[in-house]
Design a protein that fits this description.
By secondary structure, the chain is mostly helical. The chain has helices at about 5-20, 40-55, 70-75, 85-100, 125-130, 135-160, 165-190, 205-210, 220-230, 230-235, 290-305, 310-315, 320-340, 365-380, 385-405, 415-420, 445-460, 465-485, 515-530, 540-560, 570-590, 595-620; strands spanning about 20, 30, 115-120, 195-200, 255-260, 355-360, 365, 425, 440-445. A three-stranded antiparallel sheet has the order 3-9-8. Strands 1-2 form a two-stranded antiparallel sheet. A hairpin with a 5-residue loop joins strand 6 (about 355-360) and strand 7. Helix 20 runs parallel beside helix 22.
């Protein structure tokens, strides 16, 4: 896969597409915002993150310090200038984004209207509908702002050395705009958190019971077990007092419920008064019910607030840190809830394993199973106690690759192709109240999201065989994605051209989808980080390596007693070399048992040769 090389190729292709001459014949290049969709806050954030995210997550791809920028990075970004011009230009792209996506009063907006589609194409969308803030806009703003702040912090020393006061003032202005957008994104996520309650005998309750009742027990018993399993979750919901959410009626003993993030700020969401800037807290319009897709993007964004890089560099203000703690509470309880539902009953079959996942509004898609995997993986890998749960989740991911016609060929008129194009549609309940048609949000990122989940699960696994299986499937998913890369035209080497895999599709695209491309970039970053992590350890191999090193050390001590270490210079050097090999093997046996085993075998072979040579010398043979 060579993820670093793939990321460099994406940068090269992105600069070639986005940094262009104007169509009116002008000779000064400019940055073209947008791609397959028109420019908006969501799509432009995805476009910009393709440049910023890899550079901050992988130090060898960082371009903030001109003196430390690698040749491969300079070559990939050559269209933007030299080592000094590249960070200046990217800083100004960040500034341009921050200035572009504001309302008439200069308040940041988080809209994604170009990805909204009318259910009834005969009706015209209200501009207010397309301008509404969406949860994905809040979620994308968080990694965008954090990567930008990290980049600017790295670039600051260079600006200081250059002695350019105008550039320094520009950098400070950009930082101020970033923090304003970041604060608005955090408060937006706090106000778009949703808790939906329903009775066991209404439509939503019946759907949830049908999903989790894998043993065919009486509904009354399942409701009681659900309430018992959710006891800690309900206790946590009581502590949510900032923004939307809270218990919302879940404490009633017969109630069922779901939690997560809605598609936008929920209707009647309370304002958060104790913040320095309340201007981004617009009126909520979304139904107070969670959507799996928006829950996943929100959780991934919140997790970045607590990454080692952000904590180490102290990128957040005190106010942002305080509000982030409220988001962390929501993140933890949401993960626990969906892990509980996904594995409800803990028996021989989980609801998650009964693919496809069925939502409470009676929708069934393999894509929803993948989203539940995304929410539950960390819980399975941490608090649930390791590999047993992760292996079962990994089996679901493998099956989804098959069912999604990624690792298996598609059939004629295969419904699975719809997940790749035109994608799974989520109706944005509540948006029709803005005097316009009902709207849907298209989700087409099944393949790159599956690749992300495979690498995430593999990184948490200890069992070598299970990890190896997921990595084999990941290679197949990457082969699939590589075939969907646009091959020619201005967008060559970017994504997505699904017709190249699914020939029955009619659409052929000339422009890139930044929604799809950023998902590939995120997967490549995970793959690169995985490649630099410690290899999985086999407990059996570790025990065997320890036993082998005990024998090697014992034989080595015998040779020292026989006087080999005091023999001639050549023999003494060889015996010392064997001792160093054994010592090094003992140092690495806990982290790399396979390496220690190989070193132990080498030491025993060398010792056997020395022993045989000594015998030959004694007998004169």
């Amino acid at each position: 896969m060579q993820p670093r090389q793939q990321l460099l190729d994406i940068w090269r292709a992105q600069v070639a597409y986005s940094w262009r001459l104007p169509e009116d014949g002008g000779k000064r290049k400019f940055w073209h915002w947008g791609g397959r969709n028109q420019s908006d806050a969501v799509g432009d954030a995805q476009q910009l993150l393709c440049l910023l995210f890899p550079a901050q997550e992988l130090p060898e791809l960082n371009y903030a310090d001109p003196d430390a920028t690698g040749d491969a990075v300079l070559e990939a970004l050559a269209g933007l200038g030299d080592a000094v011009e590249i960070p200046i230009r990217i800083m100004r792209l960040v500034k341009e984004y921050m200035e572009k996506h504001v309302d008439a009063e200069g308040v940041p907006v988080y809209s994604g209207g170009s990805n909204m589609h009318r259910k009834d194409r005969t009706k015209k969308a209200n501009p207010e509908q397309r301008a509404i803030d969406v949860t994905e806009g809040f979620a994308l703003a968080i990694p965008l702002c954090l990567t930008s702040l990290s980049f600017l912090a790295d670039f600051q020393p260079t600006v200081d050395r250059m002695g350019r006061g105008d550039l320094g003032r520009e950098l400070e202005q950009v930082q101020e705009a970033i923090h304003r957008r970041l604060l608005g994104a955090i408060t937006g996520l706090l106000r778009s958190f949703a808790v939906s309650t329903f009775d066991a005998d209404d439509d939503f309750g019946k759907q949830l019971l049908a999903l989790i009742n894998v043993d065919g027990q009486a509904d009354r018993k399942i409701v009681r077990r659900f309430r018992e399993s959710a006891d800690d979750i309900i206790a946590t919901l009581r502590t949510i007092t900032v923004g939307s959410g809270g218990t919302a009626g879940v404490e009633a003993p017969t109630k069922l419920f779901e939690i997560g993030w809605s598609w936008s700020v929920v209707e009647k969401a309370p304002d958060i008064p104790d913040v320095s800037d309340t201007s981004t807290q617009r009126v909520g319009r979304a139904e107070d019910a969670p959507y799996l897709y928006f829950t996943v993007v929100a959780l991934e964004a919140i997790q970045t607030l607590f990454s080692a890089r952000v904590m180490r560099r102290n990128l957040l203000t005190e106010e942002e840190q305080r509000l982030a703690q409220s988001l962390q509470l929501r993140m933890d309880v949401t993960r626990r809830y969906w892990a509980m539902v996904a594995s409800f009953g803990g028996g021989s079959k989980w609801p998650l394993e009964d693919v496809p996942w069925r939502t409470t509004d009676a929708l069934e898609y393999d894509y929803y199973s993948l989203l539940v995997c995304a929410v539950a993986t960390d819980t399975f890998g941490a608090s649930r106690g390791g590999d047993d749960d992760l292996i079962r989740l990994g089996d679901v991911l493998v099956e989804l690759g098959n069912r999604g016609r990624i690792t298996r060929r598609a059939l004629r008129e295969d419904r699975a192709i719809e997940m790749h194009y035109p994608g799974v549609k989520a109706e944005l309940a509540g948006i029709e109240k803005l005097d316009g048609p009902a709207m849907v949000w298209n989700m087409v990122d099944f393949a790159p999201l599956l690749l992300k989940r495979l690498y995430h699960a593999a990184s948490l696994l200890v069992t070598i065989e299970a990890r190896a299986e997921l990595l084999e499937v990941a290679d197949l998913v990457w082969d699939h994605l590589a075939r969907r890369r646009i091959r020619e035209g201005a967008a060559a080497r970017l994504w997505d051209q699904p017709k190249q895999v699914y020939g029955e599709l009619g659409n052929w695209f000339e422009d890139p989808s930044w929604h799809f491309t950023i998902r590939v970039v995120e997967a490549m970053v995970l793959a690169a980080q995985f490649a630099t992590s410690e290899p999985a350890r086999s407990r059996g191999l570790e025990d065997l390596a320890h036993e082998l090193l005990v024998e090697a050390e014992h034989v080595y001590d015998q040779e020292l007693l026989r006087g080999s270490g005091a023999a001639g210079p050549a023999l003494a050097q060889e015996i010392r070399s064997v001792g160093l090999t054994i010592r090094h093997a003992k140092d690495v046996v806990d982290e790399r048992p396979g390496t220690a085993f190989a070193l132990g075998v080498k030491a025993l072979i060398d010792l056997d040769r020395l022993i045989a040579a000594g015998r030959d010398a004694e007998t004169g043979v």
